[in-house]
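Chain X:
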Amino acid sequence: MGEISWTSEFLDLSSFRPAYSSPMTIANVGFYYVLGFSRKFAFRKARDYHLYVLNCISLTRWKLLWTSMPCLNFSSWQFGTLCNFAKFVTHILSHHNHPALVSSINLNFLGGAANHLLLKKIAKYAFSHNVQQLNVVTWPVSNLVNYPPCLLSSQSLKHFTFSCHVTPTRIILETPLDFPALTTLHLSGIELCGDLFSKCVSLKDLTVEQFVVEDDLEVFDIIAPRLCNLRLIYGSGFKLINVIAPQLENLTITDCSINYLKAPPGLSSLCYTGYPLMRLCKVGFHSLNKATIGLFNYHSIIRYKVGDARKIINMLLKLHSVRYLTLNADIIECLSSFPDLLSHYLSPFSNLICLTIDYKDAYKVKMYTEVINFLLENSPSATFIMKLPKGC
């Protein structure tokens, strides 16, 4: 019939597209709509909704429909007490044993010891029913919380998101995740300790954001043999990050305090934005297709130092194989502040097809000829593009 998502308030029909418009299909859509309630006619109290469901399930047709929904969304915010929420979730899970498998479970809940018991129950249901996707958003009630043990291992889970949405709360993850079938992982609001991903042998897409690394950890290893895409966003505490992922193709790092990065030399795409720039491994990249490098727009607050320019040049030297290069205006302005420094280096770019300078976030546009000439010296036929701010 289509994919329909359950929530404790309504069924989302915004993306529902029936395969055909037979009377039976239309009737089923009507049942789903009435059962889930539209936003306009939804009951305001979860208690009223719970009583309504209890009255409805006595009808075989209603029960067949609501116990066969492929996507379950639970949110504790719509319930006055944890007890009511726990009863509601228990009721749904205990009656949801239709042969049609549940493909996805989403949980948004207020943290605490009691809710961790509920989380354990949901995790047990998800893993025992071979649920493919599990998304958990937690709002802890204390500043330091240990990662829930019930979410450390699953043989069937393929897509997993775990997010902590309370700042500066951190969920401490010390034990390696054991998800051999997992292909997509998204972690947010986590404190990372040691090797955490090596048991995720099928992992292809990893995103970690709003995170810190354990203070005593000198080297943080990301070991994932099949990893293709890695995104590190708003992280701190790195001294050295060592990416052991021979199949890694795309690496994105945004505002992470990384001193030193070791990444696979076969990387195809690198996107880095931050201040100050990190140092790359000595080998560099031998087949880089695309690179986007940017400093944050701090020039109105602090003056660039010669050390900043040296870091930029050292990074550019490691990107010597790149074909499509994008630099933001701050990179160009920093290099132009020390023109004598460029005279000591030859342009590393002999394979460049396109050079793009992004001025979109710059407060003013300047053309620094000596810097552009340095970048294009060994690729005179490369296309040169300037992205200007609106109004220019």
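Chain Y:
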Amino acid sequence: MNRQVEQDRRYSCKQRTSSRTMQLLELLARLLHLKMVALGVVPYEFHPATLSLQFRRSLLLYCFIIAIIGPMGRCWVYLTTFFTMNFGVSVAHYTAMFMELLDAILLVVPPCYLLCRHKKVKELFVLLVKVYYSSLSLSIFPLRLWFRACFLFNLVYDSAYGVNVALNLVLPGTGIHEKYVKILSWSVLSQLTKSIVLLIIYGTAQYLLRMVDHLNDHLAAGRLSTNTVYQEQIRQQHHGPAGYLEFYEQLGKMSETLNDLYGVPLITYFLMTLIHLTFVCYMTLTKVLTKWSYLSWHALLIAGIAVTSNVIDLLCLMKIVGTFARTREESLKTQKLLLRLNLSPMDHKLKQSIEVFALQTLHQPIEFTACRMFTLDYTVLFSIAAAVTNYLIILIQFEMAIEQ
């Protein structure tokens, strides 16, 4: 009797804790949705009770304005400052002007691309909700851990950029302080919009990774028996309604949608990172290291902040790429688990069901590419390093030719 009372008390405490956790997650979800709308990425009203999105044309117009005005405002202030001051002929100055023009375009493309594909974004959200309510994931999906991972990713990115902006305001190291403050003000808006786009990509990638992990856990926990009734139950788990095969098909549709939606934004942000790293490394090698004894301490500090900021930007992108790579690796484990099950003694129907499932994983692999140009894995990092080195050599050669 006492044991039963104790179990009931523990169950009641667990239910209360779960209820408080869900209320906190709902509050954070509302705040995150408001941030996404305010920064011009999500033109939807969010209804937590039904986990649904409602499209609003007025929000779409507002989002387009916010997505465009930040980068263009920064570019306008930068170019007007550049042309009103006499910098002379220099590869560094004209490279900076070219980079600013390209930045304005590249910062506008990802959010506007997602806004133009808002119907596809809503289809992806509906698919995510459908997978969440699946019988395989409803009771075991770690919603709290997933939300915490997304929150920390966004916090690290925003904090790194916030420290960069704060230090640049305190230690400008330049005579055009007022203009510099205006550039940073417009930069904050465009960079926060970028952080939301990256958060959406990272969040959906993490979501899919955890779903694939749960599918593999179910397959690894399965034990076969020679009992005919038990084997029929296993077959229903694989091919029955809401079974493993249907669950995997939904995950395959999610990966196809992610490839369709996120290819252009990822290529755009990788191109931005390549340009920034090339320019920062060029400035560091030709202007800072060669004249460091003539520079003030705060100018050296700003140079270090610029390098660190671009490295953090690259690491955040590689975090997203790493999530996609891990998801692909976990999907390959699904094939291995099915092949291992197929080696066990079983009747013809169950064996045929597992073979069909294995063929499905072979013909519908869960993998990710950037507009089918290259696979999203860690080899991207080495490709960026090689490209930065090549362009850096070209810029240094131009600088040497001008000096001669």
